[in-house]
Amino acid sequence: MSAQELIGFLHSDNQIVQTLALQNVLAFTSNNNLQKHLFYSNNFQPICDLILISTKKGFLNQKDSLTCLINLADNINVRKIILNFKFSHLYQEHKPTTDNNDYIHYLIHQINSDNKNTDLMCMLLSNLTLSNYDHSTRNIDLRNNQHSFPNHSLDDDPNELESDNEAENIIDELDKKRNFKLDLNLSHQQLDVLLDSYLKNDQKHDYLSYVFINASISKLNLDFFSENNFQNLFKFLIFSDPSKFSKLRRLAASSILKNLLFNTEIHQNLLNINETVDTDELDDIDSPTNDFLTYLLNPLISSKFKFDIDEEMNLPTDLQFIEDEKNFETDFEILSQYLQSILLLLTTKIVRIYLRNRKSIYPIIRELHKISNNRKILKLCDKIVQLLMRDEEDDIKTRLNQNTISNDYNEESDSDDDKIVEIL
């Protein structure tokens, strides 16, 4: 029997026939399979069939159909079919129990209901929420049933660049990537439902990490993460502890934070700096315990670091005299994102002065630099120290000598201070 005939049996009303068809066509969805294009035939009818099968009872059929959809979602037209699928007209008789006609609502409802295939549904949803700028989807290796993930944070690494001009170009590119329209921009209500599921800290919800990472790229979702004193952002930062949580959840915490910090207007509020305070007054500001600084610095600190008593007392309270077994984040991708987050914070002048006066960041970066042998981490540490240790006047002179600002700097210094290009 030909591959095309097997795929055609997905349309059968007989569940046993569908089961046999699924078992045989699953292999066709793997990467670089020559039969993969057959799922696009007949106006993508096989994709619609797979969607319908995934809503029916039967664990194995649902599992196999979801796996097919995950692997086929690397095609932009397949994603459009899934995103726009409605249980209406021809498919009304197949409509599952839900108060909404679209398939995305069904997926979210099932994830929230702890469907037995929740992990696959989360994985499919993450593929559907990608930016149309970058469609690096997650796939399932059918040989060993292992999930394969790309590096799905903002890909370009500014610390790899050698000149300020290159840095300016890459920051512009990162900004473009953040402003691209998402294929699926979930409503804040839908994100709230998914967040409730995510906070159960069940491994099957880990794949939602990518849904929230993707959502944080869009400025449309800034309010979702920042409203009520950044309540939702802090819910993700809870997962930053490398000793307690999975890599996926820690990656979500670091990626979401980094993505949000491209919005320089939130920097002061995150650090509880009064918006009306003058930079000259920052020396006189008390240094209360700051929850955000605690979450930001916790992945960077180790009990092996050596601080003198003054440095120890300048750390956030919860990071002082930490237990013997505490280690810093060992995943270099996640670690570098926290360091890049610090760099992004340092692009805002008032924050730069505030953090310099707090004296809590430099000792940690110094000790991290001593113990690390990763070139990217070392370069990021060097850049942070440069920005923290030199005064603002020297910073201005350096930028002038490098021709990175215009001759009318003095007239526009306030706006230039907040430019991200300044850091790299």
TrEMBL record:
<dbReference type="InterPro" id="IPR007205">
    <property type="entry name" value="Protein_HGH1_N"/>
</dbReference>
<feature type="domain" description="Protein HGH1 C-terminal">
    <location>
        <begin position="341"/>
        <end position="394"/>
    </location>
</feature>
<dbReference type="InterPro" id="IPR007206">
    <property type="entry name" value="Protein_HGH1_C"/>
</dbReference>
<dbReference type="Pfam" id="PF04063">
    <property type="entry name" value="DUF383"/>
</dbReference>
<dbReference type="InterPro" id="IPR039717">
    <property type="entry name" value="Hgh1"/>
</dbReference>
<dbReference type="Pfam" id="PF04064">
    <property type="entry name" value="DUF384"/>
</dbReference>
<protein>
    <recommendedName>
        <fullName>Protein HGH1 homolog</fullName>
    </recommendedName>
</protein>
<feature type="domain" description="Protein HGH1 N-terminal">
    <location>
        <begin position="111"/>
        <end position="334"/>
    </location>
</feature>
